[in-house]
Amino acid sequence: MITKKITISTLKTLAFLLIFSSILTSCKTLTSNRMFSTDSSYPYSSFEESKPEYIIHPYDKLSIKVYTNKGDRLIDVKGELKNMQDPIIYSVEHDGQVKVPTIGRINLAGLTLRQAETLLEESYKAYYNDPFVFIQVTNKRVIVFNSGSSGGHVVNFDNENYTLIEALAEAGGISDVGKAYKIKLLRGDLNNPEVYTFNVRKLKDIKSVNFQLQANDIIYVEDRPRYGSKVLQEVMPYLTLFTSVFTVYLLVSK
């Protein structure tokens, strides 16, 4: 009888040690899906005032249309657009240059769309009479994780002054597990990105929400860790195994 008690006690002790060790070894598992983690000393980028116009960046896709005679043949007497040529998509290369017909490579990164149109019109004057250039960015989209890494959305936008609050709204807002005071924005080359942080929990921080987005920005809303459910999920297989072994032991020991 004593042997039986000792054995049962030993089984319980082993089960406790097994479960406890599994919790300790699964600390990283509990947050294994967390993305874009940084330490406390990470050098975040400073907040920038929103600019009134979109700035062209490397890897943007541009629709560039070139017409002559100031584009007067585009509009009929009723003021309706007509005879629009099929758009051609050009890529902004890693160094900010765009290869366009006749001119060749020209640097457009860092310019607003209006500045880029003016630059191309001046360049084309050597070849055409009164050139008229129209540019659109065709790949303007941002990626929004509004509930940690479990809620990802690709949001396309057309307007020039597209802000953080608009992107969050179109992605469905911040989820119940999201931290409104811990939002990261990654911009530029992911090998060495600019990283901004935002706290939109309080009304006084509304200024930062008007931060203007660029194509391919990544917005990450950190989520609250749900340790209870995750620990239970990790421990449950061990509890099930122990229960099965203990039940078999009781049946055999009778």
Quick description:
With 254 residues, the chain is α+β, with helices and mostly antiparallel strands.
Please describe what this structure looks like.
This protein has three domains: 55 residues; 105 residues, Outer membrane lipoprotein wza domain like (Outer membrane lipoprotein wza fold like, Roll); 77 residues, wza like domain (wza like fold). The N terminus is likely disordered. The protein starts with a helix and ends with a helix. The protein is elongated, with a radius of gyration of 29 Å. Strands 7-6-10-8-9 form a five-stranded mixed β-sheet, with helices on one face. Strands 2-1-5 form a three-stranded antiparallel β-sheet, covered by helices on one side. A two-stranded antiparallel ribbon has the order 3-4. The protein contains six helices and ten strands; from the N terminus they run ααββββαβββαββαβα. With 254 residues, it is of the alpha+beta class.
